[in-house]
């Protein structure tokens, strides 16, 4: 990467774009609704069960100018979801500012592991044990989505729930490879702890991106 491109990436004017696609949101509060996804490369959180590990290495994804990203996005949907990787690895202010100029609704899916940048209409915080969220994001998260891979994740979920704001919607979501084992445990847990809701990766059941 030449110095000029690197500077533009560092400033958030270009981003390592892994993929972009129009589909149905499969998870959380907005499941079942149409949205345009912008998947940004780069993540050092390193969840062993991550289903998009190809997003981790930003260097293999082409630096793409945000003008081009926004031009594509506005063709398809009024709702844009920025995901990763970990999108907050990068400065999200330029991208979200441009999307807002187009009158679009902007959502983010993030572990919160880095400083919150950007203008967001909806923040889905999905914290990870190995790199905890920056404290500031808890106050503004709209939904907390904790992935349940094993029984200890219920403890972690309760710890995280203590930090979010009172209006944040709380979700437990089974890790896909463990869903048959963990769904019954999640159901039992939520029936005893009714502040939580179930989130499923419905797009995988629908066989869509």
Describe the structure.
With 209 residues, the chain is an alpha/beta fold. The chain has one domain: TIM Barrel. Helix 2 runs parallel beside helix 3. It is globular and about 55 Å long. The mean pLDDT is 96.
What descriptive keywords fit this protein?
209 residues; alpha/beta; S-adenosyl-L-methionine; 7-CO-7-deazaguanine_synth-like; 4 iron, 4 sulfur cluster binding; S-adenosyl-L-methionine binding; 6 helices; EC 4.3.99.3
Short description:
Helix content is 25%, strand content 24%. By secondary structure, the chain is α/β, with parallel strands linked by helices.
Within the largest sheet, what's the order of strands?
A: 3-1-2-4-5-6-7-8-9
Strand content range:
15-25%
Overall outline: globular
Query: Helix and strand succession?
Result: HEEEHEHEEEHEHEH
The overall pLDDT average reads 96
Number of strands: 9
Name the structural class. alpha/beta
Give the name of the CATH architecture.
Alpha-Beta Barrel
Query: What separation lies between the terminal Cα atoms?
Result: 30 Å
- Return the CATH topology: TIM Barrel
Query: Using only CA atoms, what is the Rg?
Result: 17 Å
């Amino acid at each position: 990467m030449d110095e000029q491109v690197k500077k533009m990436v560092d400033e958030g004017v270009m981003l390592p774009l892994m993929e972009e696609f129009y589909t149905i949101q499969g998870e959380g509060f907005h499941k079942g609704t149409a949205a345009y996804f912008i998947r940004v490369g780069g993540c050092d959180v390193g969840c062993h069960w991550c289903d998009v590990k190809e997003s981790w290495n930003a260097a293999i994804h082409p630096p793409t100018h945000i003008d081009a990203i926004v031009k594509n996005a506005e063709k398809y949907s009024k709702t844009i979801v920025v995901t990763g990787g970990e999108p907050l690895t990068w400065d999200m202010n330029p991208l979200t500012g441009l999307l807002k100029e187009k009158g679009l609704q902007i959502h983010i899916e993030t572990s919160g592991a880095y400083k919150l940048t950007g203008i967001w209409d909806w923040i889905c915080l999905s914290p990870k044990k190995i790199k905890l969220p920056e404290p500031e994001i808890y106050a503004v998260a709209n939904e907390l989505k904790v992935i349940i891979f094993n029984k200890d994740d219920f403890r972690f979920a309760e710890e995280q729930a203590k930090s979010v704001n009172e209006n944040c919607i709380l979700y437990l979501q089974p890790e896909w490879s463990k869903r048959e084992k963990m769904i019954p445990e999640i159901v039992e847990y939520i029936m005893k702890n009714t502040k939580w809701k179930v989130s499923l990766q419905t797009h995988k059941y629908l066989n869509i991106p």
